[in-house]
Structure formats: structure tokens, C-alpha cells
Amino acid sequence: MNLQDRFTINWHTKRFADKQQQVLLAVSGGGDSMAMAHLCLQAGISFAVAHCNFQLRGSEADKDEQLVRDWCFDNNIILHHVRFDTKQKMEEWGKAVQETARILRYEWLEQIRSTNGYSHIATAHHANDNVETLLMNLFKGTGMAGLHGIQAKNDKVIRPLLFATKKEIESYIADNNIPYRDDASNATDNYLRNAVRHHIVPAAEQWFADAVVQVNESIARFAEAEVLYKKAIAQERKKLMEQRGNDYYISVAKLQRREPLHTICYELFQPFGFSSGQVPDIIRLLDAETGRYISSATHSIIRNRHFLILTTLQTTTTDFIQIDSVPCKVHAGNRHFHFSTQQDVSHLPADAAIASIDADKITYPLILRKWKTGDHFYPLGMGMKKKKLSKLLIDNKVPLHEKEHIWLIESNKRIVWVAGIRLDERFKVTGNTKQVLTIKMTD
Question: Do 208 and 296 reside in the same domain of the chain?
């Protein structure tokens, strides 16, 4: 059976959309999305096209846009298009390029879908993408949810090509002379997904010719097993977690008898911000004395006689002080902050309570505030690797009573310094620094 027939059968079997409904196709101009558009056209599916120009590749991105415009014009298809200032949004949000583009893309697609009455958004993810996603989840560490890969239908987003391999799509493109453009960035290994795509999957296919197909069949089984898994976990939560007001009480004796203990603890506490790496510490609480605790960014688990008590952290998030110029001295909570500048960059203090910052990288006003859930920055020494502040505090084993008194400095919505903890890589002093902003924290 050819790809067109399989596509049409898959569309109706999965019930992606009714005949009277119109779908919005996300088309970049690359081979996969152009093949999806051609398949939908041949199958008689009612659709419009949406194209995003992220303005990251200069004239190449403009050529992608023109290709999609021409194809839609030639085939009398409605086209929605938008241009994003992606770099400006990256700066504003403090996010990496791929994450920024993904947020911009899906928010805009949903806006177009809902405004124009399209039933669903269709993306061109295929079987190889599914394998790559599974492998990346495994490498990063995942629970059952990470094993189901990419879902063919997730609320208003559908993926009608998920059944097809990349090789099958490439053959279809060649057989039907479908125009498309290559994104040169896809040929690099700058992103994890590209490295998995270029090296790991091909290596597996050398030993197992049908590796992509077989892994996708396993993913389908994982998704089915997850349904049963979720039901079992829901039953365990009901048996073990007793809600009293805003807190949950978990019997130590009951929890100790549960198997597999590590998995049950992870599933019980993961919704409250606890990571898989904290599970051994949670298990140790079962044998600890009263008063011992472990915290996530939002909650604490406290050992109290015969129970583990899960309670919400009372973290202050309203304290907010604006610094318009330096030098100055600011009192915040139980801390004092002294701001000054100096020209000498040769002698910088090696003191966690003192931050030495490239003054030319700062935009005023500065903001001094308490940390909050969702804060992230690029810790000094980690090579521009973004990290959630909550995770850094956990890794540094900062006690609960100290977490509630941690302040940070912001410049233009970017964290500059987590006071007493770590400077942000983007604001460090370098050989090109001409002036140093020094911030000293004292009790």
C-alpha cells in the first residue's frame, strides 16, 4: 500500500477531523510539512496553511516563506503567515532559541486556529521524530510519561504523519516532485535532537534495519501500559495520601510496606515539584527522626512522628526593591546590599557574599527581589547552560529555612546574581570588562 493510501486510512481511523471540519496545517517549507500538505490535498481534506518566519536565517527564511506562499497560491489554499522578532523575545524571556521559537509558534497557531474556527492544528512529526523524542527522554531521565513519545492526537494538535518513517516521506517527495527547502541548521549537531538524528538512530539502523518501525511499535505499547499505570498510581494516592486542610498526611508504616517503593514515592511527590534525584532522600525520611524534612521549590515533606506531612512552602514573593543608580545601600528583609563601581578589574574578591559584575552588561533600573518558582538563569561556570533556580538550590542542599530568605538581582528581567549563591554567566567579568559593579551582601 502506498503512502497516500496509508495516510488517508490513518486519517480516518484516528478520526483526526470530521469531513465538515477544516484543519490548520503548520508548514515550514521543509520536506516533511510540504509532504503533509500534498498528502492532505490529494486526500481531499479541507485545510488552510500557517507559516512562521522566525527571522533567524536571513534571506534563507524569506525563501522558505516564499515557497509556501507560491504553493498555497498555486493550489488555491488559504495562507496565514507571521514574522517574529525571535531574538528580541529570547532576550526578553531569557530562553534558548528553540524553546522561544516553539512557544511563539504554538501560541500563534492556537490563536489562528481559535479565531478562524479551524478544528485542529496539524504538525508534520513522523516516526523518526518519535524515536528521537523517546531516546532524548531516556537520556534525560523519565518516568512512564516519557515513554509514550509524541502523541498522534493531543487536544487540538494532531500529527497525521506519525505512522510514516523519514525514508518513506523522502521517497514520496521524490516520486511526486514536491518542492521543499532544506534548513542548513538541521545538518549541524548544535542541538541534542540533531545529534541523536545524525548518529544514534543511524547506528541502530545498521544493526536493526527496521529499528524505527520496531521502536514505534514499542512506543504504542508503552502508551497503552501508561493507561494502566496511571490507574494504579491513582489508587495508591487514594490509599496513602490523607488531605487535612492544605496539607497531606502519609502514613510512614503504610508507605514502608509498598513495593516498588522508589516508583511509588516518585509518583506521589513528583506533582509537588520533587525530582527523581530526591527520591532516595524521601525514602530516608521514613527512618529519620521527627523534624527532618526535604523541600522542592514549592513544598516540603516533613517527618512528624508516624507521618510524612506534605505542606506548601510559605515563600514571600511580593518583596520588590528598585535600584535606579549606584552607589547606594539597600535594606531588604534581614539583609543589607551595598552597590558600588570600580575601574580596577585585576583584584576581585573571592567571596560568595560579594558579586563582581561587568557594569556595561547591566541595564537600569536593577530589581532586588525574593526568588520565586519558575526562576531560571545561566549559572556561572556551566557554559551558558540554563538551569532552574529551584533545582540549583536543591543541588546546593540549601535548607528550607534559608530558601525563604534568598534574594536575587535582576536586570531587564534577567537574573544577574542569586545573592550568596551564584552569579549569572552572562554578566561575569571578562578580559574586556572596563568597569565592575560590585554588590556586597551583609547581615
Answer: no
Model pLDDT, residue 317:
42
* Structural domain count of the chain: 3
Domain boundary among 257, 282, 312: 312
Per the confidence metrics, is the pTM higher than 0.90? no
Same-domain pairing of 332 and 211: no
Contact 302, 293 (CB under 8 A): yes
Residue 232 has pLDDT above 90, yes or no: yes
Check residue 400 and give its pLDDT. Answer: 66
pLDDT in tens, 398-413: 876 577 779 999 999 9
